[in-house]
Amino acid sequence: MAVRAVWRPPAYAWLLLGLAALALTAKLHPEKLEGHWRLVTPALILIGVLALRRLWQLPPSYTMAAAVALSVFSGAWYQIGLGGFPLDRLLALVVLGQCFLAAPGAARMPRIEVRGVHLLMGLTILYALGSAAVAHSLATERGTLALVDQLGLMPYLLFLIAPSVFASERDRNVLLAVLVGLGAYLGITAVFEMLGPHSLVFPSYIVESDAAKPGILRAGGPFQSAIAMGCACFACAVAATIAFTRWRGRARNLAFAAGVLALLGCFLTLERGVWLGALIAIVCTGLITRAGRRWLAPGLALGVVALGLLHIVSPALSQRASGRAADQRSVWDRQNQLAAGARMVEAKPLFGFGFNRYREEAEEFFRQPANYPMVGYYANSLLGVEEEPEPLHNTYLSYAVELGLLGTALWLGSLIWAVLDGILQAGPPGRRPWKLGLVAVAICFLVVSFVNPHEPPFALLLLLVWAGVARGRPPLTAHAREPTAASPAVTAPAPA
What we know:
The protein is mainly alpha-helical. It has 20 helices and two strands. It has a domain at 1-110.
C-alpha cells in the first residue's frame, strides 16, 4: 500500500512544547504553581506531552472521534475541575496538526481536497469576522467563542478534513463506535437526571446545574441544555441504527441498547422542538427507502406503546411531560421574540446589527402584545428586570438580525451545500448508510433550528463531520503519491 511522507518531531521539540506549556501556565494561572501544585502541575504537563506524543503516532480518526465526543463538555471544563482547559478544542487542533503537518498516523490518509463549498465557508467566516469587528463583539469572549464554535470556524475545518480522515472503513468504524458509546452515556445520564438516583449522574455539575434552574426539570446532560441534549441523543441514535445494521453478534446487541437509550434520552429532554425534529426526521428518512417504508409504521407504533408504558410506570415523568407540552409561556416567548426579530431585520436588512449583538440591541424592538404578556427578552421575568437576556429562539432569524440577509444567505448556503454534497455525491463505496443517516441528522438539525437558538457546538460540529464522512474520499492506493525525498526530519514509514 502506498504511503505519504511524514514528519516525526525530534525529541527536543516535545521538550520545548512542555516548557512552553509550563511558562504559559505560570503566566495565566500562577496559582497552579504554588503549594502542592508545584509538583503536581509539572507532572501533569509531562503526562500531557507524553500522551500528545503518542497521539501523534495514531491515525487522525482516533483523535477526531475523541474531539467530537468531548465537545459535549464544551464550556463546562471549569465545572469539571480542569480549570477551563478545553480538551475538545485541543484535540481538534491536534487532528488538524496531524493532517496538515503530515503526522505518522496520517501516512495512509488521502490528500485533503478543497472544493467550492469550503471556499464559501471561508467567505462566511470572513464576513462574520468583519461584522464582529465593526460591531466591537470580536474582543468579547462570548463573541469569539460564538465565531469559533457556533458559526463555526472549527466545524468548518473539521468538515474540510473529515472525508480524508475517515476514508477507510476501519476509520469510519472508530467514529461509529464512539458515537454509539456516547449515545449510551447520554441516554443513561438522561435517565438518572430525570428519574434518579441523581448520585449516579456524572459529572456531578449536571445535577448542580439542574438545581439552579427554576421551572420544569428537563434532561440537559453535560450540555446543560435540553435542546442540545436532544439533538445529540437523536444523532447518536441514528449512529446506533447504522451500527445495528452493520455489526454482528454481541456488538449488534450493544448498538441496539445504545439506540434505545439515546431515543429515551431524546424524549426525556421534554423539548417539543426536539420531539418534532426527531419525528419529522424519522418519517422523512423512512419514506425514502424500501426497508424504511416497510418498518416505519410498526416502528412508530412500537414507539408510541413504549412511551405509553413509560407514562404508566412513572406518573411523575408523565406529569412533567404533559406540563411541558401544555406550557404556554414558551409560546409567548417565541411570539414576542419573532416579532422583535422581524422588526430588527426590517430596520437593518442587508448587513444586520453585527455578529453576536442581538442581546444588546433587541430590547427596544419588543412591543406589548394585545392578548398576552410581553415576555421573551429576559429568561424568567417581564421586561424591566436586570438579568441576562434570552437568545432569539430561531437560529435563522438570529443570523438575519446579526449578519443581515447577506450573511444569513452565506451561512445557510454553505450548510445546505455541505449536506446536499454529502447526500447526493456518489463518492466511494460503503457510504450509503452514512448518507441516509445524514438525511436524518440534517432534517432534525434544520427543524430544531427553526424554534430554538444557537446551541453548544456539538450539533453543528457532528452534522458537518457527518457530511464529510458521507461525502468521502477514496482510500490511498498504490497509485497515490509515493513518498517523496525529505529532509532528515522527514521519513517514510515501512508498509504494514
